[in-house]
Every structure is written in structure tokens, then in C-alpha cells.
UniProtKB/TrEMBL annotation:
Stated name of the protein: AI-2E family transporter
Compartment(s) where it occurs, according to its Swiss-Prot or TrEMBL record: Cell membrane
InterPro entries: AI-2E-like
Residue numbers spanned by region Disordered: 1-54
Organism this protein belongs to: Arsenicicoccus bolidensis
Amino acid sequence: MRLRLPRRPATEPAPADELASPAPGPADASVSSAPAGPTGATVPERSRASVEPPTATVALDQQSVWRAAWVVVAVVALALFARFVLKDGAQVLFTVVMAFFAACAMEPAVSRLATRMPRPVATALVMLGVALLAVAFFLAFGGMLRDQLTSLVTQAPSLVQSAVEQANQRFGLDIDQSSIMDRLNLTSERITALAGQVATGLLGFVTSLLSALLSTFAFLLFTFYLSADSPRLRTWLARLFPPRLQGVVLSMWEIGLVKVGGYVSSRLVLAAINATAMGLFMWFIDLPYWLPLALWTGLVAQFVPNIGTYVSIVLPVLVGLVSSEPRDGLWVLIYAIAYQQVENVFVEPRISARAVDVHPAVAFASAMMGGALFGASGALLGVPVGATIMALFDLYKRRYEFSEAAEAVAVAAAAGEPVQESVRAELDHYDI
């Protein structure tokens, strides 16, 4: 295949070989005489309309065509593979991502143990310790948690009725319980079904784990290898980039470990402390359903950004207010406020000062974005990911000194006043 492409416009001067062509004869009357050149020869002046633009020939050989075709095939194959990964292989990808975050959460404990023993052994010990704690908790409190949670769900209508009656008596209201139950869709049939589901789910916890054995095994395997081979993975990832970019890659890795691992591990520790303290207090005042309420308070208060502390305490307070001793709700509220102050001043700064150094608005937006993309797990991990991005931005962004002249221009523009020439001159001479 050959294409004829213009090489130069017709208005450009003719090349030297054309200028050196013989002078036209008498028959060429249409060509006017041109001024003499340096040697005295007459140089013809050719008409623009009679001269075609020179062309260049481009040959598309078979090798170039095949190369372009294979590039198109590679792009299509890559697009299909990305579609498969994001759609059909999303579960596997999600398992790998969650395993990576779990490995980051174990990193503080693994790195400390790795100074005294091989890293794979340290990783196995940490994972074994977490598994033993979970098994011991469910063996000790599994039956109590099942009974109290089932009773709480079953007694929901009576709790709502008690709350409505107290509100009508104390505030002179006329609230209909049936309308509230209908709006909440808490019919007797639904309550019975929910109670059965809760009881079945808790009693069949081991069966559920066995049915999800493949996913659980894959998660544990990925977590172990990502944690045990973390140094080699870090080196392999850095070697994919030239030396001038390896510093950026390693910085992202280290900041991610600090933010993600530190956040998850610190939240788990704070949740355990919060749930234990709240459970002991509610057990001491003999509040009904103290175990599930303590777990609810600890997890929601620590893993829901900004508003989790206030949301977590609403349910225990309501249960206390509608119980046989309404003062228990007030005691729970007073304790929650006091504990929150102690945690903010003495506990949390010592555990998670480095991990959650992010603006509350950024944390809330990150959690909402993560929840919209990946559900509850995305909301949980959205905050450390957002903190990592903000830390990298603070590390590599270019900073400028604050200009008082720019502030003066902004004030003058808001007031509708002209800007002084001295201020304009200062901005014009500012060196970027």
C-alpha cells in the first residue's frame, strides 16, 4: 500500500536542481523573464498554478501491518482480562486485598517477634494467638451471647411498648404503638423469624465456617505469605521501578504499613478495651443483655469514624431506660461520657497517635467512599487508605510561603475596592 503525501507547500522556493534547469525557449511565452542570477543566466519564474506540490511515498510493509494488528489484539485481550478480574474474579481480588490489610495489621507484632526468630515463625505465632483468643472467647461467652442476643431480638416489641408508654406518661403524648411497629416492620411473624435466624446463625457458627472453608483457607494462606514474605515483596516491588523512583515506592510502602496496619491494630485494641470496660460496668449495674451491648459499643465506637461514639451508646441507653430500672439508662450515659473523656486524653493518644493523624472530615469522607465502593469492609478500610493518601500528598507536594499580598488582593476583591499598585507589584515579582 502506498500513500502520496505532500512534502512542502507550493509557496516554498524551488529546490536548487529546479533552479538550475535550462531556460525555456521562445515557445514558453507564458513564462515571464526573471532577473539574472549571479552568473548572468536567466532564472525562470514558474507559475504557481502550473506547479504541483511534491509528494512523498510511504510504504506500509507486511511487518508493520502485523505489528499494528498484534498491538490491537493485545489491547483487547488486556481489556477482557481486566473485565474478568473486576467482575468474575472480584471475590479472589477482594480476598487478596483483605489479606494484605490483615498482614499490615499484624505487622507491628510480627516485626517485634522477627528480631528474635525467623519471620515465618513469628507470623505463624501471631496468627495462632489471634485464633486461640477468638476460640476462647466463643467458648466462654458463645452460649451467653446467643441467649442474650436472641432474647433481645425477641423482646423488641415489648421494649418498644415500654418506651412508648413511658413517653406518653411523662410527656403527655399520644403515640400509637401499632403504627410504630408497622413502620419498623416489626410484626410478630418477622420477630419470630429474626430470632430463629439469629439463634440458627450463632448455633451454626462452626458449620458456617466449614462451608466457607475454601475462602477462609485462602484468606489465611494469603495473609501468612504476605506477612512472612513482606520484606522480599517490598524489595521485588521496588525493583520494578528505576532507582530515582524507588524512594517514592518505598515511602508509599512504609507509610501504608504505618497507616493501615497501625490503624487496624490500634482500633482492635481500643475496641477490646472499650467493650471490656463497658461490659464490666453494665454487668455491675445488672443491665439486661450486657454482653451483646458491650460488643456493639466497642466495635461501633472504634470503627465508625467521628459519630461512632455517639451512635454506639444510643442502644445501651435505650435498653436501660425501658428496663425495670430506668435509672440504668442514665448511669450508662454518664459512664459513657466519662469513659470517652478518659480514652481521648489518656488511652487513645498512646495507642493510635501516628495511625489516625487525619482530619475528621477526610476520615468521614473516606469511610463513606469506601462503603459505597466495597460495602462494610470498604468503610472499615477507607479511613487508613485516605490517611495514607493524605500522608503521601503532604510528603511530596510543593509548599509555598503564605503571601500577605495575596491576602490583601482577596480582601480588596471581596470589598469591591481597587488593588493597590504596590500589592500588584509584589505579586508580579513573586518568584515561583
